[in-house]
Write a structure and sequence with these properties.
The protein is α+β, with helices and mostly antiparallel strands. The termini are far apart. 50% of the residues lie in helices and 13% in strands. It has three domains: 41-211, ph1033 like fold (Roll); 219-308, Cyclin-like (Cyclin A, domain 1, Orthogonal Bundle); 318-402, Cyclin A, domain 1 (Orthogonal Bundle). The protein has helices at 8-16, 19-39, 53-56, 83-89, 161-165, 178-187, 192-211, 219-233, 239-254, 263-277, 284-291, 295-308, 318-325, 333-348, 357-371, 378-385, 389-399; strands spanning 41-48, 95-96, 110-115, 120-133, 136-151, 173-177. Helix 10 (263-277) runs antiparallel to helix 11 and helix 13 (318-325) runs antiparallel to helix 14 (333-348).
C-alpha cells in the first residue's frame, strides 16, 4: 500500500469520514462568527498600568514587567505613581501612548481605559488623530469621559473573551464590537443623552470604516512583523525595545527612507538605534551576530537613520555596561559593586572620555576582580565585554588609581 503524503492525508480522512462533516460545519460556523465580529469591530479597550515609566514619567525601581514592591494596588506613596491618570482626570493629559493600535488610527474611534489597579474600565475618550514620534505612537483626544460607575471586565456578557482578561496578565489592548461598546456604556450609568449622542457619532464612524477597502499590508510591514515575531519568539529583547524598533521602522517607511535600501539592514540598524535611545548597552557586533549582517553596514545605516529621523542617541554609559555584562562572569556581589564604583569614579574624573566604553567597563571589572581576589582572567572578561586582553592591559594603568583600598 502506497504511503500517503502529509499533504494528501487530511483531505482523504475528511472525504472518507462522515463525522468530519459535522466538524467542518462547526468550524465553518466559528469562522463565520469570528469574521462577522471582526467586521463589526468599532472600539478598543486599552490596558493601563500606573507603575510603568509612561504612567509615572520616570522608571520605578520596583517595576519590571510587573509590580515587585510588595505593595497593594493604590497604596503606593511615591508622588510619581499614576501621574498620567491623575493628569487625565484633571483634563491636562490628552493623549495615550506608546503602543501601536491600528484601529485608533481612524478618527472618531472610542478608546476605553482599563486601569489595572482599579480593576475596571474607568472611562473613555474619542480619538481625534494619531502620530508617530521618535518611534512611539501617540493617540490624541479632546476630553476623557470619566464613568459614574467604573465597569468591571467580569460583568461584560457580550464578548466571552473580556471576562477572562480580568484574570490574564499579558494583554495590552483588545478590539470590541458595537454591541460590547453599548453594553459598557450602559453598565457605566452615563447620562442617557450622552449615550445617545455617542451612539450616533459612533454609527458615522462605523459607516466610514465600512467604506474603506480591505488593504493588503505593504511588503515592508509584512517583513517588519516577521522580524519582530522572530525576536519575540527567541526572547532576545523586551517588549519596549521591539515596540520602539517597530515605531522607528514605520516612521522610516512613511518618509521613504527604506525605498531602494535593504530592509534587513535598515531594520537591524533601527533595532540598534532603539537600544541606544533606551540606553540599553549592547555591542554593535551583537546586532551583527543576531542579524547575520556585517557590523559596518549596520553602522552606516545607523548613522543615516539618526540624521533622517532627527534623533540624538545618548552616549553609551560604561557604568551601565558594567551592570549589564559583568553578571555573566558570575562574580561575587561585592566584586560587582567594586567594579561599578571604579567605573563611576573614573567617569566622574573624565578618565573614560575618548575611550571605548566597553574597554573601560571591562578594565574596571578586571581591576575589581584583582582587588577582591576573584580568579577571572583578562581573556574571560574580554570575551564577555567584546574586547581583547591587550586592550584591558593597556587601560589598566589609566583606571588603576580609581581602585580604593578597602
Amino acid at each position: 500500500m502506497a504511503m500517503m503524503s502529509k499533504k494528501e492525508k487530511p483531505f482523504r480522512i475528511v472525504k472518507n469520514c462522515k463525522a468530519d462533516a459535522k466538524i467542518l460545519l462547526a468550524l465553518s460556523s466559528i469562522l463565520s462568527r469570528d469574521l462577522k465580529m471582526r467586521e463589526n469591530l468599532s472600539g478598543v479597550i486599552v490596558k493601563y498600568h500606573p507603575c510603568t515609566p509612561y504612567a509615572r514619567g520616570s522608571d520605578c525601581p520596583y517595576y519590571e514587567g510587573g509590580r515587585h514592591c510588595g505593595k497593594e494596588p493604590l497604596k503606593c506613596e511615591m508622588p510619581e505613581y499614576d501621574q498620567w491618570y491623575k493628569s487625565l482626570i484633571k483634563g491636562k493629559m490628552k493623549c495615550f501612548y506608546p503602543n501601536r493600535i491600528s484601529l485608533l488610527e481612524n478618527p472618531g474611534v472610542p478608546m476605553f481605559l482599563y486601569h489595572t489597579d482599579f480593576h475596571a474600565i474607568m472611562g473613555e475618550a474619542i480619538i481625534k488623530r494619531g502620530e508617530v514620534r521618535d518611534g512611539e505612537y501617540f493617540y490624541f483626544f479632546d476630553a476623557f469621559i470619566k464613568y459614574p460607575y467604573p465597569v468591571l471586565l467580569e460583568i461584560i456578557t457580550t464578548d466571552e473573551r473580556i471576562p477572562k482578561m480580568a484574570r490574564a496578565g499579558r494583554w495590552s489592548h483588545v478590539y470590541i464590537s458595537r454591541e460590547t461598546i453599548d453594553e459598557i456604556r450602559s453598565l457605566s450609568k452615563m447620562p442617557d443623552e450622552m449615550k445617545v449622542k455617542l451612539g450616533i457619532d459612533l454609527e458615522k464612524v462605523i459607516s466610514e470604516l465600512r467604506k474603506k477597502p480591505a488593504m493588503r499590508k505593504p511588503d515592508w510591514r509584512i517583513f517588519m512583523e516577521g522580524e519582530i515575531k522572530r525576536l519575540q519568539d527567541n526572547a532576545l529583547f523586551d517588549k519596549q525595545v521591539l515596540e520602539r524598533t517597530s515605531g522607528y521602522f514605520s516612521e522610516a517607511a512613511s518618509k521613504n527612507i527604506i525605498k531602494g535600501r535593504s530592509k534587513e539592514e535598515i531594520f537591524y540598524a533601527l533595532l540598534y538605534l532603539a537600544l541606544r535611545m533606551l540606553e540599553t548597552p549592547i555591542r554593535l557586533s551583537d546586532i551583527g551576530r543576531i542579524s547575520n549582517i556585517n557590523s559596518s553596514k549596520i553602522l552606516k545605516n545607523y548613522s543615516l537613520l539618526v540624521s533622517e529621523l532627527n534623533l540624538s542617541p545618548p552616549p553609551i554609559n560604561p557604568v551601565k555596561i558594567v551592570s549589564y555584562y559583568a553578571k555573566e562572569l558570575k562574580i561575587k556581589k561585592r566584586t560587582f559593586s567594586r567594579a561599578t564604583s571604579i567605573i563611576k569614579s573614573a567617569k566622574r574624573e573624565g578618565a573614560t572620555s575618548g575611550s571605548d566604553p566597553f574597554s573601560s567597563a571591562a578594565t574596571a571589572t578586571y581591576l575589581a576582580c584583582i582587588a577582591e581576589n576573584e580568579k577571572v582572567t583578562q581573556d574571560e572578561i574580554g570575551k564577555v565585554f567584546g574586547v581583547t586582553a591587550v586592550t584591558i592591559r593597556n587601560n589598566t594603568k589609566k583606571l588603576n588609581k580609581f581602585v580604593k583600598v578597602e
